[in-house]
Write a structure and sequence with these properties.
253 residues, alpha+beta, L-fuculose-1-phosphate Aldolase, globular
Length: 253
């Protein structure tokens, strides 16, 4: 049976199949871009109206091998989740479960320890300064947490879930970064461009020269122009899926 036929059969029987395919694509490309970390880090996608039921990667599965069919379907209110044989990673369950319970607007959540975003998270002043077009993309859309108290289990996870507010990016001090948006495509695009913005900012810091920081007015205007160009994230993600369809079509299975 061909990959296409398998995909069609599962699409017809699983109401969340296209969500699974999108999330699997995001995992594969995060690995391709080198933004993964071993078999750690986790993505989730709400599939119920209230956001409490969500898809998430299985425990210890490498991002480069994730398939649509193996994504876990979890319920943020199910207290027995970690007692089941296919239980997710504990920190993933605690952090993503808490966010999906507390922030239903955060439909898709991606948490990584990507290189440049994590470097930013280690700085005393981790602000994303508006020094170019990509850094201005995130003007007034980043929340910051400086209360790191361990790996995100239990009370730490609940605390983190309150920090996002209405922002789409949460820089986790001494930890990494978390993204939350309405769709997989939008969240992935946010993660992709934030890492590029961090790379530019960190590289600029490394020169030791004075930064040319844009005014608030210019940064705000540019951020709005990014938002007005909202179809870019869908176009980007569609292109990524087309590449995988040619080179790694098993992500759909």
């Amino acid at each position: 049976m061909t990959v296409t036929t398998l995909h069609d059969n599962r699409r017809n029987s699983d109401p969340h199949w296209e969500d699974r395919v999108d999330l699997a694509c995001a995992f594969r490309w995060t690995a391709r871009f080198g933004m993964h970390e071993g078999v750690a880090n986790h993505f989730s996608l709400a599939v119920s109206g209230d956001g409490s039921q969500f898809l998430m990667n299985p425990n210890s599965r490498h991002f480069s091998r994730v398939r649509a069919s193996e994504l876990l379907l979890l319920d943020a209110h199910d207290s027995e989740t970690m007692n089941q044989p296919d239980a997710p990673d504990e920190t993933a369950w605690d952090i993503h479960g808490a966010i999906h319970r507390r922030a239903p607007h955060a439909r898709c959540v991606m948490h990584v320890h990507s290189k440049y975003a994590t470097v930013l998270a280690t700085l005393k002043d981790p602000r994303m300064l508006p020094i170019d077009q990509n850094t201005m993309h995130f003007y007034d859309s980043v929340a910051y947490d400086d209360g790191y108290d361990g790996m995100g289990v239990g009370e730490e996870a609940e605390r983190l879930a309150t920090k996002l507010g209405d922002k789409t990016v949460l820089v986790l001090g001494n930890h990494g970064v978390l993204f939350a948006h309405a769709t997989v495509a939008q969240t992935f695009d946010e993660m992709y461009y934030f890492e590029r913005a961090c790379k530019t900012l960190i590289t600029a810091y490394m020169t030791g020269r004075e930064l040319a920081v844009a005014t608030d007015a210019v940064a705000r205007k540019t951020a709005q122009q990014w938002r007005d160009y909202s179809e870019l994230s869908d176009r980007h993600f569609l292109a990524l899926k087309e590449i995988l369809d040619e080179e790694e079509a098993d992500y759909r299975t």
